[in-house]
Amino acid sequence: MKKILFLAGALAIYACGANKDTAKDSNVDQAAKYASTITAKELGTHLFTYASDEFEGRNTGEPGQKKAVEYLKNFYVSQGIPSPISSDDYFQEVPADFLNKRKRQVPLKDSENVVAFIKGSEKPDEIIVISAHLDHEGIKDGEIYNGADDDGSGTVALLEIAQAFQMAVKAGKGPKRSILFLHVTGEEKGLLGSQYYTDNPIFPLANTVCNLNIDMVGRIDDRHKADPNYVYLIGSDKLSTELHTLSEEINNKYTKINLDYKYNDENDPNRFYYRSDHYNFAKHNIPIIFYFNGTHADYHRPTDTPDKINYELLENRARLVFHTAWEVANKETRIIADKAVKK
């Protein structure tokens, strides 16, 4: 009888402890918990490989770009993040005839977008697309254009964001809506990989909630030398008031980055809104945010190398994208596009 009472008491104590642990976990800010797994160290480890000479500048369709897509695929496999296509196929093929619709002096070869997918727990048919372009300029006049900032920085940020979401999934805290991690090819050739995706979407565009596009987020431009904790946001308010407001609130709560809207101006002579992959989503009335650090002396130069990246800034900017995606994925209602498409 004493043994039975002792066992009952022990179980009660264990249950009480378990309840406390559960209560404690419920009080943890889950977004902050998983965002903290995005680290400067891991970003650097990825980028010193991804923007190395081994990848030969990742020119669309060339051997270095093929090595790059294998690197991305192998990462997703290692993390247990599945493909939305089939069990072992992470490549959305982008055929040469599509890439060469515009006449080129040197025709492009077949290429591929890389896709990975986390299915939402409650609203799986609603898709958030987080994108970065995987290609760069390749080799010119015998020099390798490594493209560490453009867009190695966005590419490795996307890997870390995916890993953070997958850690949440494994802990039973996965997103309510689905997340598509989309690495597009042919951006440097005219936004071709993202155009191919939106022409041939894996998931209906009508089900695509928003696109968060990361293109160059590892450097500091001349405008911000004195205050480097910034990022340019482009397009956040052009299609969805709600997405813009959410973005600002999330930044104020978590990352406290100076959000610079200089290039969001309709009269911006650089026309950056039309010059990265988000635009192919915006054309279809899908709300977007484009994250960008501006140009610098090494933009489209062979000197854009991984040793020049500010990894602490890259970490915080990647966390901002993660937090924004987390909020969009988990809010009760889908964000609304309340503004007309501007061509």
TrEMBL record:
UniProt-listed InterPro entries: EF_Hand_1_Ca_BS (IPR018247), M28_fam (IPR045175), Peptidase_M28 (IPR007484)
Domain Peptidase M28 positions: 113-323
Database matches in Gene3D superfamilies: Zn peptidases (3.40.630.10)
GO BP term, pick one: proteolysis
The protein, known as: Peptidase M28
Short name of any one Pfam family annotated for the protein: Peptidase_M28
GO molecular function: metalloexopeptidase activity
